[in-house]
Amino acid sequence: MLADYPLKYLALHWPNIRSMGWAAIRNATPLTRPGHLPELPVHLDARIGALNNELVDQYAAWAGAPAQRYAKALPPHFCSHWAMPMLAKLGSLAPYNLLSLLNQGLRMQIHQPLQRDDAIALHGSLMEVSDDGDKVRIHTRVQASNPKGELAVVIDSYSTVPRGKPASKSKPVKRDEFEFNTVGQWHAEEEDGLAFAMLTGDFNPIHTLKAVGKRTRFKSCILHGFGQLARTWEVLHNASFSIADIDVRWIKPLPLPNSGMQVQVSAKKDSEGYTQLRVAAADGTLHMVGRFK
Fold first, then answer.
1. pLDDT digits over 146-157, tens only?
2. Within a 10 A sphere around the Cβ of 201, how many other Cβ atoms?
3. CB-based burial label for 39 (10 Å; 0-12, 13-18, 19+)
4. Are 195 and 201 in contact (CB under 8 A)?
5. What domain count does the chain have?
6. Are residues 146 and 252 in the same domain?
């Protein structure tokens, strides 16, 4: 499978590798990371050139999309490639060790599709950083516009940095009960972590290096949360669901390999018109939950 993704793709990912690598290295020690949190919000702007069409095709196929689904537009979840340098730069403004950063959730609002062969204008913001004792919570936002200046996609990313202190126990949040139906499934192969990296430029060792994965409590690499989102998105699309607004949380890492991931949606919408979503392993363990409309 990895033979399908030539090394030439690495050149396409250089901005991602440079931005994420520099952010991780600079923030790894107190001597080089920022000494204090800047006044928030902080805003940055960037421009991304038109993306390589071969790379887009390969990524869409990996996610499970039919060949012609994204003939003209970019897959919305390909933000895992074009938004990552901006997210890394914003996160590096916080005075914490990003090597231990964990992606917790994502909300994506789609106002209109981003088109192939178009440049993308990005406006990023470090919105909020809070410390609750056992972890630091970081909220970043990226807004993507087309060459006409029209807003296309808004991404709110939520991550945490553990502080090494024991988490205080809290009462479980009461959730509304919904009846769920399975609308499809997807499978994660052992090499999918590295394949996703070759397609997006996110080479975090926990997703790509087996030697690192074996040293974790999962004893294997884990699939990137954005990879879970991509596969789930295409299953929903195949089941005739269109998505304009999606909000998900990754609640349990997904070890590789993992077959029979069940994509389940609520039979009824909630009071705000959202359909509830969850992704469960074959043994019933929930890995991703959220809602969309």
1. 999 999 999 999
2. 24
3. exposed
4. no
5. 2
6. no
Q: What is the CATH number of the domain that holds 229?
A: 3.10.129.10
Pair 141, 184 in one domain: no
Condensed to tens digits (0 to 9), the pLDDT of residues 115-148 reads: 999 999 999 999 999 998 889 999 999 999 999 9
Q: Which of 205, 289, 226 is nearest to 79 (CA)?
A: 226
Which domain-ending residue is among 107, 136, 162? Answer: 162
**Do 203 and 136 reside in the same domain of the chain?**
no
Domain that holds residue 34: 2-162
Q: How far is CA 219 from each of CA 190, 204, 216, rounded to the nearest angstrom?
A: 12, 16, 5
Cα separations in angstroms, 197 against 7, 67, 150, 210, 227: 12, 21, 30, 14, 10
